[in-house]
Every structure is written in C-alpha cells, then in structure tokens.
Amino acid sequence: MSWFEDNGPEGDVVLSSRIRLARNFDDLPFPDIMNKEQAETSVKRCRQALLDNGSALSPDLEFIDLGKADDTGRQALVEKHLMSPDLAKNYDEGALILKKDNSVSIMINEEDHIRIQCFCAGLDLDKTWDLADKIDDLLEENVSYAFDKQLGYITSCPTNVGTGMRVSVMMHLPALVKTGSINNVVGSIAKLGVTVRGIYGEGSQALGDIFQISNQVTIGRTERDIIGNIGGLATEIINAERSTRNALLQNSRVQVEDIVWRSYGLLTNARVLTSDEALKLLSDVRMGADMGILDIPLTVLNKLFIMIRPANLQLIYQSQLEPYERDLKRAEYVKKILSKTEV
Question: FRET pair for 341, CA 20 to 30 Å: which of 7, 47, 50, 177?
C-alpha cells in the first residue's frame, strides 16, 4: 500500500510526512554542469550501492531510467510526489530508484547527485527519519559524499548546506481556508523560518486546500532539531484546523452540511470534472467525512486526490486523452469510486 492510500497518525489533517536528504559525490561536478559521462557515473554508483551490491533493501527497490520512460509515466510520478517537476523536465541524464510501496524515492541527478525522499502516511516524522537515515547510511557505506567538517554536507543550493535535510508535512486545511484564517497561519510560521507551499512544492498552488510546511534552513541545526521544530508547528496547525472545524459545526452546521452535500452531489453526478474543480470538491467532501457528515473512508479520498490528476488518470484508462476527454473520464472514475462507499 502506498502512503497516499493510507491514513496515518493525525490523518484527519495530515496526509503525509516526508523527509528529503540532499547528497553529492565528492569527486563529481554538480548536476547542472556535469557532462554526459559524469552523469552516467553518478547513476551507476547509486544503482550499484543500492541494487547491485545485494543490500537488504534491494529486493524491494526498482530502478527507473527516466530517459526511457514516456512523458505520461514521468508526470504520473510527479503527481504521486515521487519525483520533482524539475527532474521530470530534465530527465535525459536522470534516474529514479523506488521502493515498491512508494515509501522511498531516490532521485538521481536532479539539483544534487542524490536526493533521498522517504514518506509516511500522517504525521510520523520519527518513522520517516529512521527510514531516510538507514538509506543514507547504506549509500555512504559504498560511496564518498561531499562533506565539510565546518559546513556539513555540500549541496548545489546554499540553502541546503548543512544537514541537507528538508522536512515536509502535507496538510489538508479546508476550515482555515474557508474562514480566512490560513493567511494568519502562513504569516506566523513564515517568521519562524518555515515555508508554506502548495500541493506540489515550491511555486505550486494549494489545490484542494492542501499545503506543505517545511524548513528553510538546514545549516547550524541538527536533524533532530529540524524534525522537532516542524513536528511542533504541524501539531499547532492541526489543533488550529480542528478547532476551526468544530467552531464551524457549532456555529454554521447547516451551511457546512450544505457545502459538503452539494460537493458530494456534484462528484457523484457530474458528467465533466476538471482537475481543479474535482480537487476543490474532494476537499469539501473530505472535511465532511472527518466531521461525520458523510461516511466515507479518508483512505478512499486520499487516493482520489492523487489518481484524478491528468497523468495518473491516463494510466488508469491506458490511453492518451485530450483535456476534455480527461475531464469526462475523471467524472466517470470519481463516480465509480464513490459509488462503492455508503454515505
């Protein structure tokens, strides 16, 4: 089961926890100035370290040559948060190593030679860090990292120097959005060195009322400090979202129920659904499911958030679809999935 099909700790608000570690080889130029031979060397080293050397993880890992994948396949990986949009665009000399349950994604030759990403459902940063740390150790047993005793791990972007760690928590915050309180939350945590991004990271929109919070600074702090800080802020936001949901139920129950049931009605009856519209409606329905207005498992809705995106939808129907055709198939797929649940 993939992280986006599960419902982990604090799953009413938190969709997933992610820890990313940026690492580079000590004898190769950064990816943006590597030649083809050096890029191939980087890919070969990673593959040997994790797959060819018979590591404990190797039976569960899959190597993906991005140059041999098609555009739809690459975009589907982006939609599942397993690969960055940048690597999807500059795939010629890149590769990906995936764990079969999608809990581990190792991007090769993105902005850095190696970017280890580990995922868990819900708010579970300790478990996520434990997995990322083990993979990092496994790699370091076989390769030599660029490391400075004073600065820490050397990375392509100065903001990642130090631990090279980016801790992210993906959160569903519909009540804070509907009440306008989200602006205060974003402004407050921005002062603490934490960024708030949309569903697909930097530069993306908060579609479906989904936000990612992550640390900005990696130097001068330990991994545990960063994890503790993000975990603490996430807990505060969880409490704020829950209290706002409760206040909406107490003060505006009829209006909230109307929003939820209207959204459910559109999702189960519409003949055409754009991606953005479907995400907005799913956000309302997911909020209603958590409030007890609808009896739909959050796991069903979590998976829909991912699978209705354009590339994954085309993989489901095994066909290249024009935009309008995707909108038709999206409505068909959502109706089919929701019809299997009782409300």
Answer: 177
